[in-house]
Structures are given as structure tokens and as C-alpha cells.
């Protein structure tokens, strides 16, 4: 890096502002990005070197060189021209791709960047930024290189960025100017000091360095990842920032992560190489045989033929090489030179077809399928074992807060209230006791959630705006009064606590369908909300997108924001147009009303209400079933995708659902009452429920306007739940956290205008970040009274050991509750806190400062410091958050299992949580035996488990078996008994591995790959923690999900939804396997036919090594005569329709293990090739031998006519053979067959009318054949004689349903016989 960067002890030292180089020219191109493989100078040698690494290309290169050195029986051009064509096509393709990369690089490298050099601003090209430069980045601009943040326009030294280009996450992240960095003028910033940092690494989330300040300061400030802006991130909500460039060009973290090497090869290439080796050995054998036969004739036959003259007495080495190599060149076309280039073209075009498939396109996110590695297309049809992540892959990673455990008591979340499980009492924030208030206070401040800049002011401003517009809305309102949901009426009564969420949803559905006035009347209803269905956390992406597009009309209750604010219900019927204009455009009110439901029924973008399904009884399979509380499971509702199976995991409750007649009164009243309503007058009831609904709506709108940005959906769900309950986190101001206390429900007897929101302030002192090793995060805050507290939130297995002994009883109760939550498939977190003394805090600060100033083992030292402060905690409780299942995930998994694919789910969740999800999504069949290996700590116990499981599998004939193992037990299995575990586990129908680290995931995949059974594996995931697993598997599949795009970037294939995997494997995988098999086998077939005739011809020419074909035919046979039809059918062949493949997943098994590339298929094609060669040659030989007066002019045919007739027959037969083998016949395909045959005829006619006298003399030979009627009859007879056996066998197979090659005891048949024997006799 020139003189701007020095390296000491493997650490970089960078002068802020760069060193003063005087009049020397500033270094350039230090920030240049280069993604190209070649340059103008290196393209030709480097590309040729890459291509000649292929055996076939190298073989033909050697053959060309040999043909130039000896007296070749054919023109050297017959080897040279096809080789040049193949090399040129491949080079042109790779060169074009490199040019596109070069152009893209230039756009990035030439983009303008503002820097400060010597205190003066200058605009330079991005490629000229050098380490030490002070770079200015403005709002909504991309960061050009890795920068250390030194200045920001934010008054608190913050900088907000998004990292969508790095990891795909669109949420805001907060960076900070280094603490205690002195503020200097711009012209003096280059005098700040020196940055010393580690060499660049691929880890996006770590950075170790320090700033050594100059002058009298002399201080050292630590630098961490929160002080670094990475290239690829974008500055948001901050007007301008200034940073010092540290890593530039190809050593930025983004570029280091972009250099992903994929050396994966398709399993089909193993069979192709085997076939090539067999053909090569056959070629050597043929050449050797013909050579010895020639020597025999020269020694014993030719001397007897006196008319040939005297035989030569001497035989030199040169003559030996001439004879032997002549045969080698003559038969080198047994190796299909154009096979590789055709396969490459077929794969690239097939990749385009997958990317263009509209069934693999996600309209909501505008994401199409991405093919990163097209040479694995056919591998999609060979998968035996699929490894899948759970969170974000089988589930949506959309979190909904459902339940919690507080001080040993379990509660259900009811939008704005808590319902205690035992007493069914409804509690709002006014009725919270100290434990409950402290618990939700912890959730409201123990996080790293950001509030989008200006959103709070926007919410306050919108409140004032709606207040001013209120009279207009009121004046325009006319028509029938508001019709309210039954839940609104019964919400204030105790009856609502006995009514499940599903019941309410079902009532709303019925209320729309049975309205006396039909759909039109239902359309007039605009506000109808269930008290138990949270509109904020509803899993509907289209809803959120639509809400973001329209301006927010936020209306508050007096106790929420400002006094004198009034809220009016959205108008109906006559005033719908006016309200639509008020809300902006054509969007309707965001409330959950009957109109919204009716819109959901008819709009394709909004899902209809789901149906009811039976809940799984997975808890019966767990050891602690007797301790579980069944009441908790009865009313739980899974927020499954609408329209998908198992939408509810709850028992049918149609018997307790009120009748539809109770939903509406008579049409004339235009109001709705419930017979279950409390016994008080109608007017107060409507006022109460109107106020209740109004307060819910304004809280929801306020939260929407705040626009929480969280690093994980779990955190966002918890903060939003607190806001719904009345603890609204409104953001931080210079680490001062603000929590607004807003009671969502007040006594209806009190005036609504009384009450003012209360705010609590907390000074956040430190954030102890979450890591995959710690499995928890903590914050240290100081409250209004000056007391310091540490709040910790994380996995219970990591938080419980940190709790004080005084919380032992509470830990036991909470652990039981967490087990109950896990059985419902909920994700759990434990919450704890304690007070910190002043002396302890000072010690913590000192140790933390020492750890941060260390450049070695900083992470380890920091975690040791964290562990000291995170001790003797007081447990507060636990949270239970639901992760909704992906669309059609159950149908996808069941179909893949029916296709013979065994599915292993590798997750970091608890066993109970993962088991419930696995049963709900169909991963584990409901009637399967479940074998648990949990907390196994030594080799002996693991062997006992594996032996017991093996007996279960062997003796449980017809019984499906599922294995469930946790991370600790798996660690023992991988290190102690890996082979035994692998052999037993692969026999199970499904395997569920829980509590795994990312490294363990990849180790499991590697273990299965090491099996002697040669399993083809695939891994699918959506997060950065799945990358190692994805790269380890034979086929890596990424989901472009909420956790980022790193998995999609590292994967071979990527798409938006898990359900698309079914089509990718069952349709595209099946098609590509069939197509490649046909392509490979046909290439060997047509070359064997071609060279088989040459072999037979040698027996009738005294093995003279002369060619029966003209050099033109040898040159164009693989390039023009037979290339186009096979390429076309190799990208369009469809043995079954797409619908049948999706409907019948068992068809997938027909191609697994590359069945159609096994030796029986190959030998059958070889036998047909030999038969066709014999028929074509001897039919022509007989015709020329018995009577060669076949020309129309009554003359005998010359030798050139014989060779031309043979190649004519070969071209017709091999093209018709391909037609016969094809299943998907289109007009374009038939056109390619016809054009290939006509191409032969046209090129031959042109060639034979030009008297070149270059090779063999075929002047006017083909024209004479075209004019001869016997020749046409011979062509017809040969075609029929060759293809009748093929046609007959195909018809017998179809008519009699004869299986292919059932007489061959292949590998799969032997395995089935062995399995049958073991299951019967062992």
C-alpha cells in the first residue's frame, strides 16, 4: 500500500489524513475493485490453460499435434477444426462474462467520492481512495471502503446505516464515534493521530484496533466493530459522516467475503469420466488389434498377392509409429470432443429456465430464483438427504409474542392485556403488580432496538393533524352507525377470558358471511377488531407494505399523548369516498374491520381467514408429559400462513361457537349485539367498546409510526408487545432511554380527557452484545433514582446458571413453564436482573477498559469481564414467542419424503420446541416412533442408545422411526462414535438435531458425505449461521429471508420461499437429470455408430488405415450434423408433465443415484450403436458388392459414393434414433432434426460440386446419389431396419409395463435384497 500504511507485528498503522508526501504523486487505484478473471494480456494463455485441463480437450490437442507430425490418413483439419470450434465457443462465453464484470467494476470504480486531504475537500474517483484518507459520506450514499467513524452530524455521535448489500438485513444499525474522541476543526482532522488495527479478515462483525492521539493528549482510544463503516453499507437518517479509510480495494471485508470458491462437481461427471475411460481403453484395444492384424497381413497375406509387388523386408520404429498412430488418429472420434461444450451450454440455458420460472418467483418481494452454480443443475434430481435449518427456513422468522412466565405464574398475551392462565383474570397495566411491571420494564429496555429518526415527531405531528381534520370527518359522516365485533362487546366482561382467539376469528368470519344484506352490506363495515388478534403482529406482509405506502392518520386518547384529541370511527357507506381521500389514494383504513375481511376474501394479495385443524399431541411423546398443563395448550393458536394446512393447532370448537344468528340483529337497526353481552344498557356498552377500540387503534397506529428497527425479529416482537400493553419505548436520546407509560384501558366512568402519559427515563451505560457463544445479551442502566441495574435476556440454559441461589425455586417453576412453551413450538427467552453497586461498577469499568485496549484476545478478555458482572442475577421470568410456519411447508416436506428424500432438521432450538414444529410441519410423521438421545455424555451411553435404536429400526417392520438428539449428545457422537451414529441415523425416516452450533451443522453434513453409500446431500438455510452447512453439502440452497442474504450469496441456488424447494427438486431436478442422461448417452452412441463403420471397413481394406469418410464429414459430424437436435432436446425434454411430477413425487426416485447413467443403460446404448453400424455398413457393402450399377446414368458407383452413402445413412439414423428416444415432441424440435439432415445434404452438395482435390475425390458423387432411385430405397430400408428393434422394445415396455433392465442385479437391487433379508431373518 505504498508509503501510506506501515505494517508492524502483523498490525496495520495508518496515519489519519495520510502522510505528507509533499510534491510526490498521490498513490492511485488502491481502492480499485476487480472481479474479473482475465486481462487483455492474460486472457489467451490463462483461458487456454484452463480449457486444456479437461481430458477431452487435451486428448484432441495431442491428436492434432500427432496428425501434423506423421503421414496422417485423414486431414489434420479433421481434429483441428472441431477443437478450435469448441475452444473458441467456450472462450467467447467466458470472455463475454468477464467483459460484463469489467464494465460493472468500472461503474463502481469511477463513482465520485468526496475526501478531505490536508484540510481541503476534493472529489476524486472511488478507485483513488487510499488508506488514511478522510472520506465524506452523505445521507443515502454507499460507503466506498471500510472506514473508521470520526465525525457525524448526529449530536450524540451516532451514525445509522443499513447493511442490505452485506448481509441482506434492511433494519437500521447504529454505529458510534469512538468515545472520548476530541472534536477538532475539519482542517485539523488529519493531525488527530495514528490508527493501529488488525489485518483485514472476513468476519463482518469484528474489528480490533485503537487510535493513538497526537500532541498533548497522548491517549489511546479502543476501536471495535461499532466504530467501523464497512464497504457496501449505506448511511441512513444521518446527514453526513466523516471516516478514515483503513481497508480499501480488494482487502475490504466485503470483497474478502465475495471471494467464495465453489469447487463442487456434479455426481454425473463421475459417470461421464468412467464412460470416457472405458471408451479410451476400447480405443487403445481397437488400435492395437488393428495394428497386429495389419502386421499379420503384411507378413503372411500381402506376399501371396503378387500384383501388389514385393513386401518390404525392413521394419523400423518410424514405421511402427506411423502405423500405430495412424490408427489412433483414425479412431480418435470415439472420444466426443463436443460433449463438454454441449453439456456446458445445456447447463447454462437450463439455469436461465429456472430463473425464468414464474412458479419460483415471489411477487411480494420481487425475487426470482437465482442460479449461482449451473453445473449442479442435474444434481437437484439426485438428492438423497436434505439438511434443513428451522428458523427462517421452515418458519417465517416473523415473531409474535404469545405467552410469558412472571414470578412463577403463567400468562397469555391478549393484545393490550394479560390473561392469567389459572384464574383467567384479565390484567392491564393499571392492575400490574410489582413483579409484572418490572418484567415488562426489563423487556422495554433490555434490547438494541432503534426508533427510526423523526418517527416519534411524526407520530406527534400526525396526532395534531388528525385533530384539525376531525370536524370535517365528523361533518361528512352519515349512514348507519358503526357495527362492532362481538369481541368488542364482550371484552369488558369476564366472559371474554373464556373465549379463545380462534373462536373470535371464526365469529368475525361468520359475521361477514351471514350479513342479512349480503356482501354489499358487509362492505360498508369498516372497523371490526378482535380483542385477541393483534393487528400489529399479524403475519401479513402485504398488509405491512400497503400500510407503509399511505400516510399515517394517528389519533390518540387523552392519556396517550395530548389532551383534547378525539378519535372518530372511520365513516361508512355514503362517506367512503371522503374518508378514502383523507387516508391518501385508494387505500382503506388500516383497522381490522369487516370491510377489511371482505377485501381479504376477494383480493389476491390478502389472505383469507384460515380453517380449523386438529392440534398435534406432540407433548405425549415427551418425558414430562404428566407435568404439562393441558390448559395452556388448549387455546393456543399458531399464526400459520393463511390457506396452508394445519393453520391452527387447536381442537375444533365449533360446539362453543355462538350461532350466526347471534352475530347480527335485524337489518333495520344497522347495529350488532351479542346475547353474551353484559347486562347493562346498550348506550354505555357502545361507548365503552368504542373507547376500547379507539385506544387499541391509536396504540397500533402509534407503534406503526415509531417504526421499530431491530437486529432480530424476537427483539422487535417483545418491544411491540410491551408497547401494546402500555410500556411504549420511544427511542433513546444520547443513551437516555425513554419509556412512555400509556394505560391502554381506563375505567369507562372516568372522563376520557383526564390523564397524561407518564415517561420513565433510563441512562444506558453499557450494552453487552449478544453472540452465538454467549447466547445472551445484557444492558447496564441507571434509573431516575441513580441506581444501576443489569438486565440480562437470553437462552434459559445460559441465563439460569447465572441466577442467584435465592431464585432456585423460581428457576424450577420457570423451567417447567418454558418446557410447556416449547411443547407448543414457541421460542423462549429467560429474563433476569440485579442491582450493581458503585464499587463493583468501577471495577467493571476498569477491567473493560483494559480488555478493550488490548489488541490480542480482546474478545476473550471482554467476555470474561462480562461474565463477572452477569452473575447472581434475580430471575424475573421468561417469554414465549411464536415463529409462524412458512407457506405450504407441510405439503413440501411430505412430498419430499414421498420422493425418497430423508430430511434432517438441524436447529439451535430446544428439543421440545423443535419437536412441536417438526410434527406441525410434517417433518416427523405423526405415527412415527420417536427415539430421544438427550444429555448423553460418554461413548458407552451413546453406543447403548445407538444399539437400541438400531434394533427398533430393524424389528419395527413397516414402522417409521424418528431420531431426536441434542447438541451435547451429538458432540459425543461426532467425536467418539461417528461411523456408528451415521450408519444408524441414516436408517431413520427423519432426524431432528437440536441445540447445534453452525460448526456442528457442517460436521453433520460432512459425516453423511463420508458414507460408503455415496449419498447426495443438499442443505437449505436462510441465515449466516447456515453458510458452513450450505457450502459443505453437495448442493447448497439458500432462502432470501429476513436474516439476510449471506446464505443466498453462498448457495448454489436461492429463492424466496421454502415451498419452492418442492418444484425445484421434483420438477427441475427430475428434468435436468433426464436431460443430461440422454445427452451423455446419445453422444457416446452416435460416435460409436460413426466409428463402428470405420472399424468394419478396415477388415475389407487389408487394415490399410485408410478412411472410409471424407475429411469434411469427419470435421462436421459432431459440429453440424448431430449437435443441434440433442442440444435442443437436452434443454426441453419432459418425460412427464410438470403437474404430474408435482402430484406424484414418487417419480423422483426414477432418477436418483444417476440410475439412467448406470452401466446397463450405457451398455444398451452401445449395443444399439453396434447394431446400427453393422446394418448401415453391410447393407451398403452388399449393395455395392452384388451390383454397383446404382446410378441413374447406368454407371458403376465410385468409392467416393460408398463413403458418402454411409455417412448419409449415419446422419439420418442417429437423428431418427434421437427422435424415437425423445418424449417431448415439439414443432421446434422436429424442425431441428429436419434442419440437421438438410444441413448435411446442403453442405455436401456444395462441397461435391467444387473440385478441390484436397482429400478424397467426391466430385459430383453426392449429386449422383441424389439422382439414384435405388439409393433412396436403400436409405429407407436402412432406416427401417435400424430402428424397428428400438421401436419394438419401446412399445413392449409401454404395452406390457416391463421395467428397464430388471434382469441386471445392480447396486440398488442388491441393497433392497439385503434390506429384505435383514428385516426378515435378523
TrEMBL record:
Residues 572-582 have a biased composition (Polar residues). Residues 1048-1296 form the P-type ATPase C-terminal domain. One of its GO terms (molecular function) is ATP hydrolysis activity. Its cofactor is Mg(2+). One of its GO terms (cellular component) is endoplasmic reticulum. Mg(2+) binds at residues 389, 391, 1022, 1026. Residues 27-79 form the P-type ATPase N-terminal domain. Belongs to the cation transport ATPase (P-type) (TC 3.A.3) family. Type IV subfamily. SUPFAM superfamilies: Calcium ATPase, transduction domain A, Calcium ATPase, transmembrane domain M, HAD-like, Metal cation-transporting ATPase, ATP-binding domain N. PANTHER family: PHOSPHOLIPID-TRANSPORTING ATPASE, PROBABLE PHOSPHOLIPID-TRANSPORTING ATPASE. Residues 519-531 have a biased composition (Low complexity). Its EC number is 7.6.2.1. The chain crosses the membrane at residues 271-293, 324-343, 1079-1099, 1111-1132, 1159-1181, 1193-1216, 1228-1250, 1270-1289. It is found in: Endomembrane system; Membrane. GO terms for biological process: phospholipid translocation. It is a multi-pass membrane protein. It catalyses: ATP + H2O + phospholipidSide 1 = ADP + phosphate + phospholipidSide 2. Gene3D superfamilies: Calcium-transporting ATPase, cytoplasmic domain N, Calcium-transporting ATPase, cytoplasmic transduction domain A, HAD superfamily/HAD-like. This is Phospholipid-transporting ATPase. It is an enzyme of class 7 (translocase). Residues 457-485, 518-537, 542-601 are annotated as: Disordered. ATP binds at residues 389-391, 715, 770, 793, 827, 907-909, 995, 1001, 1025-1026. Keywords: ATP-binding, Magnesium, Membrane, Metal-binding, Nucleotide-binding, Translocase, Transmembrane, Transmembrane helix. Residues 111-237 form the P-type ATPase A domain.
Amino acid at each position: 500500500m505504498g508509503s501510506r500504511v506501515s505494517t508492524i507485528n502483523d498490525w496495520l498503522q495508518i496515519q489519519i489524513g495520510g502522510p505528507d508526501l509533499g510534491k510526490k504523486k498521490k498513490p492511485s487505484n488502491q481502492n480499485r475493485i476487480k472481479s474479473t478473471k482475465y486481462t487483455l494480456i492474460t486472457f489467451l494463455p490463462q483461458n487456454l490453460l484452463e480449457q486444456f485441463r479437461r481430458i477431452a480437450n487435451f486428448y484432441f490437442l495431442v491428436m492434432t499435434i500427432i496428425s501434423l507430425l506423421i503421414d496422417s490418413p485423414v486431414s489434420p483439419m479433421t481434429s483441428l477444426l472441431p477443437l478450435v470450434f469448441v475452444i473458441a465457443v467456450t472462450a467467447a462465453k467466458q470472455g463475454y462474462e468477464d467483459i460484463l464484470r469489467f464494465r460493472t467494476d468500472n461503474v463502481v470504480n469511477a463513482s465520485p467520492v468526496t475526501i478531505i486531504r490536508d484540510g481541503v475537500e476534493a472529489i476524486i474517483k472511488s478507485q483513488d481512495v487510499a488508506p488514511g484518507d478522510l472520506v465524506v459520506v452523505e445521507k443515502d450514499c454507499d460507503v466506498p471502503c471500510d472506514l473508521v467513524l470520526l465525525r457525524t452530524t448526529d449530536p450524540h455521535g451516532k451514525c445509522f446505516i443499513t447493511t442490505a448489500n452485506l448481509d441482506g438485513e434492511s433494519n437500521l444499525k447504529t454505529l458510534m464515534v469512538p468515545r472520548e474522541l476530541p472534536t477538532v476543526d475539519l482542517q485539523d482532522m488529519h493531525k488527530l493521530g495514528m490508527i493501529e488495527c488488525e489485518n483485514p479478515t472476513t468476519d463482518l462483525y469484528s474489528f480490533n484496533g485503537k487510535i493513538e492521539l497526537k500532541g498533548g493528549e497522548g491517549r489511546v482510544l479502543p476501536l471495535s466493530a461499532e466504530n467501523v463503516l464497512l464497504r457496501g453499507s449505506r448511511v441512513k437518517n444521518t446527514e453526513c459522516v466523516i471516516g478514515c479509510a483503513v481497508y480499501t480495494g480488494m482487502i475490504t471485508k466485503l470483497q474478502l467475503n465475495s471471494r467464495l470458491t465453489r469447487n463442487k462437481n456434479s455426481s454425473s461427471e463421475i459417470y461421464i469420466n468412467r464412460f470416457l475411460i472405458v471408451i479410451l481403453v476400447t480405443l487403445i484395444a481397437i488400435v492395437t488389434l488393428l495394428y497386429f492384424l495389419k502386421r499379420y497381413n503384411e507378413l503372411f497375406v500381402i506376399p501371396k498377392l503378387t500384383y501388389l509387388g514385393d513386401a518390404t523386408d525392413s521394419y523400423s520404429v518410424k514405421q511402427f509409429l506411423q502405423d500405430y498412430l495412424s490408427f489412433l488418429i483414425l479412431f480418435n472420434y470415439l472420444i466426443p470432443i463436443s460433449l463438454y461444450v454441449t453439456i456446458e451450454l445445456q447447463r447454462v440455458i437450463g439455469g436461465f429456465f429456472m430463473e425464468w420460472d414464474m412458479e419460483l418467483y415471489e411477487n411480494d418481494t420481487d425475487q426470482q430464483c437465482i442460479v449461482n452454480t449451473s453445473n449442479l443443475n442435474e444434481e437437484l434430481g439426485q438428492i438423497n438427504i436434505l439438511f434443513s435449518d428451522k428458523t427462517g427456513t421452515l418458519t417465517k422468522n416473523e415473531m409474535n409474542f404469545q405467552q410469558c412466565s412472571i414470578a412463577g405464574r403463567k400468562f397469555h398475551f391478549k393484545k393490550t392485556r394479560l390473561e392469567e392462565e389459572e384464574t383467567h383474570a384479565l390484567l392491564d397495566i393499571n392492575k400490574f403488580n410489582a413483579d409484572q411491571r418490572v418484567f415488562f420494564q426489563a423487556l422495554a429496555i433490555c434490547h438494541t432496538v432503534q426508533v427510526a429518526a423523526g418517527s416519534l415527531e411524526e407520530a406527534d405531528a400526525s396526532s395534531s393533524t388528525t385533530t384539525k381534520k376531525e370536524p370535517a370527518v365528523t361533518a361528512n359522516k352519515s349512514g348507519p352507525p358503526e357495527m362492532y365485533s362481538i369481541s368488542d362487546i364482550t371484552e369488558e366482561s369476564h366472559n371474554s377470558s373464556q373465549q379463545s382467539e380462534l373462536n373470535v376469528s371464526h365469529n368475525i368470519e361468520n359475521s361477514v358471511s351471514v350479513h342479512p344484506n349480503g356482501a354489499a352490506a358487509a362492505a360498508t363495515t369498516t372497523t371490526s377488531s378482535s380483542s385477541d388478534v393483534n393487528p400489529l403482529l399479524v403475519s401479513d406482509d402485504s398488509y405491512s407494505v400497503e400500510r407503509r405506502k399511505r400516510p399515517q392518520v394517528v389519533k390518540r386518547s387523552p392519556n396517550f399523548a395530548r389532551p383534547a384529541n378525539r378519535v372518530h370511527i372511520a365513516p361508512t357507506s355514503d362517506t367512503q369516498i371522503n374518508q378514502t381521500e383523507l387516508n391518501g389514494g385508494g387505500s382503506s383504513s388500516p383497522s381490522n374491520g369487516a370491510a377489511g375481511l371482505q377485501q381479504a376474501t376477494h383480493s389476491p394479495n390478502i389472505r383469507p381467514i384460515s380453517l380449523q385443524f386438529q392440534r398435534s399431541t406432540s407433548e405425549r411423546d415427551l418425558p414430562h408429559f404428566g407435568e404439562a398443563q393441558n390448559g395452556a395448550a388448549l387455546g393456543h393458536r399458531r399464526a400459520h400462513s393463511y390457506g396452508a394446512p394445519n393453520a391452527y393447532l387447536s381442537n375444533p370448537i365449533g360446539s362453543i361457537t355462538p350461532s350466526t344468528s347471534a352475530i347480527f340483529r335485524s337489518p333495520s337497526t344497522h347495529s350488532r349485539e351479542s346475547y353474551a353481552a353484559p347486562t347493562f344498557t346498550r348506550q354505555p356498552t357502545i361507548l365503552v367498546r368504542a373507547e376500547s377500540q379507539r385506544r387499541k387503534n391509536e396504540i397500533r397506529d402509534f407503534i406503526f409510526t415509531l417504526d421499530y428497527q431491530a437486529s432480530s425479529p424476537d427483539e422487535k416482537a417483545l418491544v411491540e408487545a410491551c408497547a401494546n400493553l402500555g410500556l411504549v419505548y420511544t427511542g433513546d436520546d444520547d443513551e437516555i432511554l425513554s419509556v412512555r407509560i400509556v394505560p391502554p384501558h381506563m375505567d369507562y366512568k372516568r372522563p376520557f380527557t383526564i390523564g397524561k402519559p407518564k415517561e420513565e427515563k433510563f441512562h444506558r451505560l453499557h450494552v453487552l452484545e449478544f453472540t452465538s457463544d454467549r447466547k445472551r445479551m445484557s444492558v447496564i442502566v441507571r434509573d431516575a433514582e441513580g441506581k444501576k441495574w443489569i438486565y440480562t435476556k437470553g437462552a434459559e440454559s445460559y441465563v439460569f446458571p447465572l441466577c442467584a441461589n435465592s431464585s432456585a425455586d423460581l428457576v424450577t417453576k420457570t423451567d417447567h413453564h418454558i418446557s410447556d412453551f416449547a411443547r407448543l413450538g414457541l421460542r423462549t427467552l429467560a429474563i433476569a436482573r440485579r442491582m450493581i453497586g458503585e464499587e463493583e461498577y468501577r471495577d467493571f469499568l476498569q477491567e473493560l477498559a483494559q480488555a478493550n485496549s488490548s489488541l490480542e484476545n480482546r474478545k476473550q478478555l471482554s467476555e470474561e469481564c462480562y461474565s463477572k458482572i452477569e452473575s447472581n442475577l434475580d430471575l424475573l421470568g421468561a417469554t414465549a414467542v411464536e415463529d409462524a410456519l412458512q407457506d405450504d411447508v407441510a405439503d413440501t416436506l411430505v412430498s419430499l419424503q414421498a420422493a425418497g428424500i430423508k430430511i434432517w432438521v438441524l436447529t439451535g432450538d430446544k428439543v421440545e420446541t423443535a419437536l412441536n414444529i417438526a410434527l406441525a410441519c410434517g417433518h416427523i410423521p405423526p405415527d412415527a416412533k420417536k427415539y430421544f438421545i438427550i444429555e448423553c455424555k460418554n461413548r458407552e451411553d451413546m453406543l447403548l442408545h445407538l444399539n437400541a435404536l438400531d434394533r427398533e429400526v430393524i424389528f419395527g417392520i413397516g414402522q417409521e422411526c424418528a431420531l431426536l438428539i441434542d447438541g451435547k449428545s451429538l458432540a459425543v457422537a461426532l467425536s467418539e462414535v461417528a461411523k456408528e451414529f451415521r450408519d444408524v441415523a441414516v436408517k431413520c425416516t427423519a432426524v431432528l438435531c437440536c441445540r447445534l452450533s453452525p460448526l456442528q451443522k457442517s460436521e453433520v453434513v460432512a459425516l453423511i458425505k463420508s458414507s460408503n453409500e455415496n449419498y447426495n446431500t443438499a442443505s437449505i438455510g436462510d441465515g449466516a449461521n447456515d453458510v458452513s452447512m450450505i457450502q459443505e453439502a453437495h448442493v447448497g440452497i439458500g432462502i432470501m429471508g429476513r436474516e439476510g442474504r449471506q446464505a443466498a450469496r453462498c448457495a448454489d441456488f436461492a429463492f424466496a420461499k421454502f415451498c419452492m424447494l418442492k418444484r425445484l427438486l421434483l420438477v427441475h431436478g427430475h428434468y435436468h437429470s433426464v436431460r443430461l442422461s440422454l445427452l451423455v448417452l446419445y453422444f457416446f452412441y452416435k460416435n460409436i455408430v460413426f466409428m463402428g463403420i470405420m472399424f468394419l471397413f478396415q477388415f475389407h481394406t487389408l487394415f490399410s488405415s485408410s478412411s472410409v469418410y471424407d475429411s469434411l464429414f469427419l470435421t462436421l459430424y459432431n459440429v453440424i450434423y448431430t449437435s443441434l437436435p440433442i442440444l435442443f432436446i437436452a434443454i426441453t425434454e419432459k418425460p412427464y408433465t410438470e403437474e404430474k411430477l408435482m402430484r406424484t413425487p414418487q417419480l423422483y426416485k426414477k432418477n436418483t443415484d444417476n440410475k439412467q447413467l448406470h452401466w446397463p443403460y450405457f451398455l444398451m446404448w452401445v449395443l444399439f450403436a453396434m447394431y446400427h453400424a453393422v446394418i448401415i455398413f453391410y447393407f451398403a457393402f452388399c449393395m455395392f458388392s452384388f451390383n454397383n450399377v446404382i446410378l441413374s446414368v447406368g454407371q458403376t458407383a465410385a468409392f467416393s459414393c460408398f463413403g458418402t452413402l454411409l455417412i448419409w445413412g449415419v446422419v439420418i439414423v442417429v437423428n431418427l434414433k434421437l427422435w424415437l428416444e425423445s418424449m417431448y415432441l415439439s414443432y421446434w424440435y422436429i424442425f431441428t432434426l429436419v434442419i440437421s439432415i438438410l444441413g448435411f445434404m446442403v453442405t455436401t452438395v456444395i462441397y461435391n460440386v467444387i473440385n478441390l482435390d484436397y482429400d478424397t475425390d467426391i466430385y459430383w458423387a453426392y449429386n449422383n446419389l441424389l439422382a439414384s432411385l435405388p439409393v433412396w430405397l436403400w436409405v429407407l430400408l436402412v432406416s427401417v431396419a435400424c430402428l424397428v428393434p428400438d421401436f419394438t422394445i419401446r412399445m413392449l415396455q409401454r404395452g406390457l409395463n416391463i421395467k428397464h433392465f430388471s434382469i441386471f442385479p445392480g447396486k440398488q437391487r442388491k441393497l433392497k435384497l439385503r434390506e429384505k433379508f435383514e428385516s426378515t431373518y435378523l
